[in-house]
TrEMBL record:
This is histidine kinase. One of its GO terms (molecular function) is protein dimerization activity. It catalyses: ATP + protein L-histidine = ADP + protein N-phospho-L-histidine. Residues 245-269 are annotated as: Disordered. Keywords: ATP-binding, Kinase, Membrane, Nucleotide-binding, Phosphoprotein, Transferase, Transmembrane, Transmembrane helix, Two-component regulatory system. The keyword Ubl conjugation does not apply. Gene3D superfamilies: 1.20.5.1930, Histidine kinase-like ATPase, C-terminal domain (3.30.565.10). SMART domains: HATPase_c.
Amino acid sequence: MSDPAAAALLRARVSDAACVLFGLVTVVAFGAAMDRGGASARLLALNVGAGLAACALLVWRRRHPAGVLIAMGPLVAVSLLCTGAALVAWFTVAAHRRWPVVAGAGALYLAMLPLHIWRQPWGRLDPAALLPGLVVTVGVAGWGMVLRHRRHRVQTLVERAERAEAEQRDRVRQARRLERARIAREMHDVLAHRMSLLSLHAGALEFRPDAPPEEIGRAAGVIRQSAFQALADLQEIIGLLRADETAESAESPGDRPPVEPARPQPAPADLPALVEECRRAGMPVRLANRLPETAAMPATTGRDIYRIVQEGLTNARRHAPGAEVMVTVGGDEAQGIRVEVISGPGITPAPVPVPPGSGMGLLGLDERVRLAGGRLTHAPTADRGFRLEAWLPWHR
């Protein structure tokens, strides 16, 4: 048994013992008063027996509080020595039952008091002497009902707190699912770019096996570097997903493993490096970056700009090999940001078939731009090229 359950059971047992002891003390006190008043031995024995029976009924007061109080009614009519046990039963009913039950059981209990006064053979009992008893009885009932209301209030607050914790856990799980979806989109954008470079150079080596050794060595170097970077990106993504799953299965925040901070996200300042990488791969690319250098751009907006350009270059490399590509990025905080990637018609045949998954990049890019509150358009141009244009708000 857990410690809280054991402590609660111990408190219940101590409370029951105290209630029975209070009833016995009442029996002894009133019995001594009757003995001093000259009551006969037979009458004294009858009253003491009724008082002890009432104390014995207190054993079932937690399971059947109203039934115990009703069963004590005839005993109260017989003997005043049942007063202590009856008050305990009365308090239990008020503390554990609704007020209609309390009112009904209390009315039956109070109806026995006039009968008790009427049948006293050892001296008339002044009805006015019962007034303090009635006040005490009503006070005990009020105390019990206040405790019941307080316990109900505490239980309601506990349920609300548990419900709030459950809702918070649901929000955390939802945030993790959204983060996994974001990581999946990033994985597609990054790996698609790396794999397109690998496919391009591997296809070139297959298409031109008689190329000069310098050109073969340069292509092999690009293949090695792209494969190494793709493997590093994939390992980082898998590590993030594993760390997130482990944190979600932890029982408490203290049990969660530390998550390594993510590396810096790409920004418009990284576009020249991206373009230079494509140039080294043999892709003619021009970049016109007209963004203001002094303005502070949100990190998420800068990352979206980079991914749009990266996906546009990847599509051009896949579907229009050898075509010249023009990348234009411009805008400001008031008008938003416009990103444009225009490629001409392919001038060389594709060295390898288009890899699987082609065509899904634009769908993912459209979702990224839509979630950012922007617009994306793409269509062929009149000279059989392709135009990709996106507008993004400066602030989301």
